[in-house]
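Quick one: co-fold with flavin-adenine dinucleotide.
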Amino acid sequence: MIIRRKKGIAIIGNGCAAAECIKKLREKGYSGEIHLFSDNDRPIANPMLTTYFVSGKIDWEGLFPYGKGDEFYHNYQVITHFGSPVVNLDAHNRIIKNKDGFEFSYDQCLIATGASPFLPSIPGIHSNKVFVIRTVDDAVRLKKALQNRPHKALVVGASMAGIKVVEAFHMVGVKVILADLADHIFPLAAHPDCAHIIEKRLLEKGIDLKFGAAITAIEETSGGLKAYFAGNIEPVEADLLVMCIGVRANTGFLERKQVEIKQGVLVDQQMRTNVPGLFAAGDVAQGRNLLSNEGQIMGLWANARYQGRTAGANMAGVPEFFPGNIPHNITHFLGMDFIGIGDVKQFTRMEKKYDGKRFIQLFWQGDILTGANFLDDYQSSGIIKNQILKNLQVSYKTSQSSLPFIQNLLIRNIFEEVEKCERA
Ligand SMILES: Cc1cc2nc3c(=O)[nH]c(=O)nc-3n(C[C@H](O)[C@H](O)[C@H](O)COP(=O)(O)OP(=O)(O)OC[C@H]3O[C@@H](n4cnc5c(N)ncnc54)[C@H](O)[C@@H]3O)c2cc1C
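Sure, here it is.
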């Protein structure tokens, strides 16, 4: 079945990037049809909150920040096509097709399909004792598994998602082992000095840690499973395992000959792809790391919202720009507040301060402050974030004097937005 619309907008994916695009389209006066395609039939969910649902910290409704029913779609006059993934997008002819065989010819389209957990090709990975966490369905499955009262869980991946899973298990009294190939926790966001303080606190809480541990195989046992690691590392027996070793952008329905894709769909500052009329936003989109000036998927809720809004404005015909972002992680877990901003790997100077509770570590490249780690010091982090952004604006002014003023303003607003979103 083909439905042809002259002025229809198609949005693929039903996360916050899609929601913010829809809001902005209407705010900017777009009055045509908006068709939303989703692979599931749930309202817009927040993946960040899934582990809180698993542990019981929030209830079912808490998973859906835009409303638990169809009020959002009703308010913004959205025509929904739910419960069937888009399986093909012919970007040149502007036609999308979902698994049910429904074809839709669009005028403009936003790709907002987010990302999915990465699973390595190792024996046993498809065991029903192996879990991931991203979607509402993942959370429901893991919560059900907890009803069987497991004693011991293995979490592979000392990432921001991994630590949230550790926290969820710890809160309900399940013994946890956290393993990672890297030699310390938060390998991308934390300097080893900061990581080791976090690790010490985790050990004090009874959480076992295994670093330098590359998982090679999983074997089901009568009671649970056994995970094997490369080298001399002892296998681990557990009742279940959660893989948290990163995500991959959901781009499988796109033709790579048509749409430029690296780790994600390449976008410019207006969220435009290389194909006219086709936009991308959120965890599927590869925008710009303002520090390195290279393309990067940020994998952040606030970033996805900002990109969605930028796409929406431009799709409505009102030029808006989102220049990029700085890698940053702000996370609260097991009584600790960790903040990692910018680049903590490459630096020419480093300073740190620790009073036994609060830890601050700053990194410079030449005279420019380019990275920071904070533990339990939320207040100073705001000052440092602003300093990094100020430096960036100065370097932008000197290196790209044509950069419009509005873009500098947007850079400054990014962190205000992050804080608002993360406190919400
Ligand atoms: C456990 C966990 C903890 C996190 N912690 C933080 C944090 O502390 N701070 C932070 O900033 N971010 C965090 N994040 C990341 C944050 O949730 C994401 O960056 C954000 O949700 C991205 O939004 P999105 O709209 O791009 O994608 P998503 O929210 O993933 O939405 C994409 C939607 O598209 C749908 N879809 C996918 N493929 C198709 C298809 N082919 N057809 C139709 N529909 C499709 C999906 O089902 C989904 O509904 C965390 C994520 C997880 C899982």
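If it helps, Confidence is low (pLDDT under 50) at residues 396-415.
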